[in-house]
């Protein structure tokens, strides 16, 4: 599987997928920059009057509902319906789902009105969506991860999609195939938007591969491994320095790095 991951990462850099991101204002610049470092082309096109036309041009759509305004909500629904009609991949990041009822309602609208390719959230968000008791603190998961694999599989089966739950160990499943990704570092929790950036990379990888299980695994492996490499390059816990180095290692990551450091395990 590690060779599939490497092939997808190479394809991103070769093909420069155009990723339309309707995402939250806290991390929009970091999402754009990490996409560039990954080899993709970011487009933060979210005006309701523009999104449908722009979807014609894109490789993938990323929707993150972290700071969703009414304008963004309308734009996200329009873009998702158009992308679904054009059979373009959609990655949905259901931020704060399970903690804020409006976020849950909007997530359900998107799932019911469009073909979502990947649902990527933290453990608490995914468990809540799947009907399990997910533990949240605002937009952050404080869930211990019990039953997360079962929750991911149930959600994947319900919507015919790939589900990824990020945490100390990331879980990716399409309902049949499941893998665990054990790359990462605790310092990622000290950087705002690590999950948002992972979601953006997931969309970029989906834009170059029809196998969204493998593309999601590739994106999360790259994010976690880059975090490890960045943490190992600094002395002590220095979140600001770490943040800069995270971008650097996403940009400079090689196939050899992935072969040596990728920690994927299939169930």
What does this structure look like?
With 267 residues, the protein is α/β, with parallel strands linked by helices. It has one domain: Ribokinase (UDP-N-acetylmuramoyl-L-alanine:D-glutamate ligase, 3-Layer(aba) Sandwich), CATH 3.40.1190. It contains eleven helices and eleven strands. The strands form two sheets. A nine-stranded mixed sheet has the order 2-1-3-4-5-8-9-10-11, sandwiched between helices. It starts with a helix and ends with a strand. About 3% of the residues have low confidence.
Tell me the domain tally.
1
**What is the CATH architecture annotation?**
3-Layer(aba) Sandwich
Number of helices: 11
What is the radius of gyration?
17 Å
Shape: globular
Give the CATH level 1 class. Answer: Alpha Beta
What is the structure about, briefly put?
With 267 residues, this protein is of the alpha/beta class. The chain has helices spanning 2-15, 28-38, 51-55, 70-85, 101-113, 123-129, 148-159, 194-206, 212-232, 239-252, 255-261, and strands at 18-22, 41-43, 60-64, 90-93, 118-122, 136-137, 140-141, 162-166, 170-173, 178-181, 264-266.
Question: Keywords for this structure?
Answer:
nine-stranded mixed beta sheet, 11 strands, UDP-N-acetylmuramoyl-L-alanine:D-glutamate ligase, 267 residues, alpha/beta, 11 helices
């Amino acid at each position: 599987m590690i060779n599939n991951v490497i092939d997808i990462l190479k394809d991103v850099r070769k093909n420069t997928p155009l990723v339309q991101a309707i995402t939250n204002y806290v991390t929009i610049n970091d999402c754009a920059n990490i996409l560039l470092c990954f080899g993709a082309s970011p487009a933060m096109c979210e005006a309701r009057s523009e999104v449908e036309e722009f979807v014609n041009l894109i490789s993938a759509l990323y929707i993150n509902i972290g700071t969703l305004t009414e304008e963004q909500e309308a734009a996200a629904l329009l873009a998702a319906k158009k992308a679904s009609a054009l059979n373009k991949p959609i990655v949905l990041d259901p931020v704060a789902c399970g903690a804020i009822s409006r976020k849950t309602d909007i997530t359900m609208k998107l799932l019911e009105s469009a073909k979502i390719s990947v649902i990527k959230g933290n453990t608490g968000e995914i468990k809540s969506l799947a009907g399990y008791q997910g533990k949240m603190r605002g937009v952050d998961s404080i869930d211990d991860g019990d039953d997360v694999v079962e929750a991911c599989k149930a959600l994947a089966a319900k919507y015919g999609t790939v589900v990824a739950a990020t945490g100390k160990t990331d879980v990716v499943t399409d309902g049949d195939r499941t893998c665990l990704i054990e790359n990462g570092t605790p310092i990622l929790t000290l950087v705002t938007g690590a999950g948002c950036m992972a979601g953006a990379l997931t969309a970029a990888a989906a834009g170059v591969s029809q196998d969204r299980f493998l593309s999601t695994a590739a994106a999360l492996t790259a994010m976690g491994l880059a975090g490890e490499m960045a943490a190992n390059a600094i002395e002590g816990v220095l979140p600001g320095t770490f943040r800069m180095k995270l971008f650097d290692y996403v940009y400079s990551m090689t196939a050899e790095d992935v072969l040596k450091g990728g920690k994927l395990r299939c169930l």
